[in-house]
Write a structure and sequence with these properties.
The protein is elongated. The chain has eight helices and no strands. By secondary structure, the chain is mostly helical. The model has no long low-confidence stretch (mean pLDDT 81). Helices cover 76% and strands 0% of the residues. The longest helix is centred in the N-terminal third of the chain and has 53 residues, at 26-78.
């Protein structure tokens, strides 16, 4: 996955193509104009869908942070939990609409979740604590929801990234509006390395 925004650009050929449509007669030019209006409407709807999907991820991440904060407080009462866990959880409660920031927040929340899991594993008697057990179940459920929401978001991002390069109509509209590709959710480097480990 390329974590970089690529702009949709058209060359002289696209401009000549549009001029030719009007030169050939008013009907091809008008048809193409309606196609461009339709393409713009498609992009507007797709942007709304991306925002809705991103908002869903943000909501699940925020819920996860709240669950992890509660769990960290419970653990802190029983063990000397790292102060940075609280600081990081508080820091990531604020929302950011950028694709890159959303990726970083998701990866950081995953890392904090792993830290709390390690604390529970190091103190087996804590695992039996009802509130901690419930918080860990909620965290697992929310992680599944985040994963599902990310897949939905990435599907919409892939559609956007494909459509802005679809020549002639959509690419011309995308270039005129200075649209760029969007960055999908990507697994962190740490997760990719962990996936290579032998578990059994």
């Amino acid at each position: 996955v390329i974590a970089k925004k690529i702009p949709a650009e058209v060359g002289v050929g696209s401009i000549i193509f549009e001029i030719l449509l009007w030169v050939l007669g008013i009907i091809p030019g008008v048809i193409f104009l309606f196609k461009k209006i339709s393409a713009q409407k498609h992009f507007d709807q797709l942007q709304q869908k991306i925002q809705r999907n991103a908002s869903q991820i943000d909501n699940y991440l925020e819920q996860r942070v709240m669950v992890l904060q509660n769990c960290a407080r419970l653990l802190d009462k029983a063990v000397d939990l790292d102060k940075s866990t609280f600081e990081n959880l508080a820091k990531y409660r604020s929302k950011n609409d950028s694709d890159v920031a959303r990726n970083e927040i998701g990866n950081t929340v995953d890392a904090l979740s792993r830290n709390i899991n390690i604390a529970v594993e190091n103190y087996p008697e804590l695992a039996a604590h009802k509130e901690i057990e419930e918080a860990m179940h909620q965290n697992l459920y929310l992680q599944r929801e985040v994963t599902a929401a990310r897949e939905l978001y990435n599907d919409t991002i892939n559609e956007w990234n494909k459509d802005i390069f679809e020549w002639p109509t959509k690419k011309i509209v995308a270039a005129k509006n200075k649209y760029t590709t969007r960055i999908p959710f990507i697994a962190s480097k740490e997760i990719k390395e962990k996936a290579k480990d032998i578990f059994f």
